[in-house]
Amino acid sequence: MGDIQNTDNIESNIDNNNNNNVSLESSSSSQNNNTNTTTTTTTTSVDNLQVGVLSISDQSTPTIETPNQQQQQQQDDNNRGVSNETIKASLDGLKHNSLKTTFPNSTNHQYIDVNTQWITNKLKERESEFTEKRGMSIFLGTWNVNGKKPSESLDPWLKDPSMSLQPDIYAIGFQELDLTAEALLLGDTTRSLPWEQHILNTLQGDYVKLLSKQLVGILLCVYVKKEHKPHIANVQSDIAAVGIMGMMGNKGGVAIRFSFYNTTICILNSHLNAHMDNVLRRNQDMKDISKNIKFINESSTDHSTINIFDHDQLFWIGDLNYRIPLPDNEVKEKIKKKDFYNLFLVDQLNQQMKAGAVFEGFQEPPISFAPTYKYDAGTEEYDSSEKKRTPAWCDRILWKTHKKAENVGILSYKRAELISSDHRPVSASFVIKIKVVIPDSKNRIYQEIVKELDKKENDSMPDANISTNMVDFETIKFMQPISKQLIFENIGQVIARFQFIPKLDETILCKPWLKISPLAGMMIPKEKVTIDLTIYVDNLTSGLFNINNNSTNSTNESMDDILILHLENGKDYFISISGKFQKTCFGNTLDNLVRYPHPIRNNLPIPPEQKKLSIPKELWRIIDYIYYNGLKEEGLFIKSGVTKEMELIRDCLDTAEPFSSISFSIHSMAETLIRFLESLVEPVIPFNMYQQALDASSSPLSCKTLVSHLPSVNYNVFFYLISFLIETLSNQKENDLKPDQLAIIFSTVLLRPSPQSQLSQFPPDATTVKKKADLILHFLISKDLIN
């Protein structure tokens, strides 16, 4: 790629009060009492790729001249803040979608009771000796009610006359419970109450509600027979909204998990993206929901979490929105003939599961009923509107059994003929083999394990063997975990207790980008233990490998470490860790990136005394692409991108490959912009100005003063982004974006507390979210701040 600093037709200068110009090819030494700049559009060639840029001309604070901006804003609009309704709607999404490290703080040396840990593990191994399996039934139902209130008897759906016994568990999911604007903005959950009461009236007095959880229009309710309630523990719930920062509150997932006797069950109700051609979007929704829903591992001592897959039985229900890609007439003809088999062969979900693209390892009962969507509400006729949506099995029930658990038995899979909605409700019943503890047997096994432990105890020297003392992780990529395994075997005659210990004069066991599991343990003779080593570089640790030291022009840390595995009353084993981090523009700093006029991968930055770019070229390329290809796209910066596509985009940014060499949606590029800003080691508004920014947020003038004191590169980036966002909002008739939404999304990544701060340890509260968003909103709607 040709150096941007040598491209003559790129001129982007910010003229400050000291008349120091900061351009795409200028030094960053200028001061920042900046005012008054306008912005124009130019085009340049970067390595033979035509790139349109928003360039900053010599007047002072950047903006983009558009017809929409020429209309004078009302003074009260200039001073207004982000609405409380929008703030409230964003809180759940912000909780789940912020970039954070995967690893708990387990690198510090700590005491671990290996005896208790070993006994617990042995009990788990011998669980079959002190438990008996009993068949319990579970009923799962899903219905997209299209905003309708309860008006029909639920008996045809919830009560199956063919079932001789009542279900032990009911799990009932709804979608589109409330389609009102208030629900979407306020997260209003009052519509759930009539439905929950309607369910209880249908189930009568034999059941009690275990828990219900709602995300806007998505509701999940779990009921159990009264007799089982004392045998249920560890009840938890979580939600995950999809879209960037979880801003698409009407789509997402709700999950409830619990221990039923000695069996763990997780039930997830979701509503995925609609429309025939959004297959990849639905696939990504499923993966995002799976990743973002977490529960506290109550059996651990390190406050770790478990995910939906860490359960004996996982059930996924909901309006998954997969369609049948055939002509409407052909589908309806096959429905009349009840030729469901041939329809199912081309069903999108069936095809995607077969290809391993989504719901890997899940199963679905055979479908023997007609598609459940879309009907004319209140009738038995499929969609007769102008859109004539093709019938589809949008409403599905899937399950996944853990490899260590016994698979379920299918009792039924059917639809019910309730007609108030444009969907038909679906239900499935299963038999689950529940593990029930036999107390006397468990106590006997426990005593046997303790006696075995006592018998092995003596004063002899332990001995062990490790499979390798050199672990090479090879290439490590940003935010892509890689794991390797060691086998540690007790080859002695006595119990061997082991624990990782810090190196001399250190308090941590390993580098912060490395995770060890387990940290300690115990082995009886001939027993083996698998030790997992995982490297994960995120924005908290990437600076060590991405940023070059000015004096040595090399990074401050190599991807090497030495681990010490200590055998109690025995010797120490030294394990060498090595790998090579692939440098990237993500997880970097603005100051470092503007020293790379060439691709960052496999290159060194220019010396500090040479002229730097005024903004990172990667930011320039991303914004340029969106500017020319996506400003009118509906849901821009709201709908999330596809992970694999974003990884390809990142590679193009790091290598200067043209975007035309890969295939991706505009939403993947838009989310790449968000994630790039979010990954910065220090945000655009630096950590040391965080509190000042919050304090200034109520006054547009104070916000302008604060931004004028940003470091020069940060200042350039801030106004470059603001100019672009203003241009984006000038197309809001097409993209349906609102200033409040953009203010919340971009304030989350432009303004963050330091990761060392206590503030970063907790989800943001409504007051903080509003202050941050208000600061950005002032610049988006107030002409006074950008003139």
From TrEMBL:
A Pfam match:
RhoGAP
Q: Which residues form the Rho-GAP domain?
A: 588-787
A GO term (biological process) for this protein? Answer: phagocytosis, engulfment
Q: Where is this region: Disordered?
A: 1-46, 60-81
What InterPro entries does the database record attribute to this sequence? Answer: Endo/exonu/phosph_ase_sf, Ig-like_fold, IP5, IPPc, OCRL-1_2_ASH, OCRL1/INPP5B_INPP5c, Rho_GTPase_activation_prot, RhoGAP_dom
SUPFAM superfamilies named among the record's database cross-references: DNase I-like, GTPase activation domain, GAP
Q: Does the keyword Endoplasmic reticulum apply?
A: no
Molecular functions per Gene Ontology: inositol-polyphosphate 5-phosphatase activity; phosphatidylinositol-3,4,5-trisphosphate 5-phosphatase activity; phosphatidylinositol-4,5-bisphosphate 5-phosphatase activity
Keyword field: Cytoplasmic vesicle, Endosome, Hydrolase, Lipid metabolism, Membrane
Q: Where in the cell is it found?
A: Cytoplasmic vesicle, Phagosome membrane; Early endosome membrane
Query: Would you name any one GO CC term?
Result: membrane
Transmembrane ranges, per UniProt, are: none
Please give the PANTHER family that the UniProt record associates with this protein. INOSITOL 5-PHOSPHATASE (PTHR11200), TYPE II INOSITOL 1,4,5-TRISPHOSPHATE 5-PHOSPHATASE (PTHR11200:SF300)
**Belongs to which family?**
Belongs to the inositol 1,4,5-trisphosphate 5-phosphatase type II family.
Q: What is this protein called?
A: Inositol 5-phosphatase 4
Organism of provenance: Dictyostelium discoideum
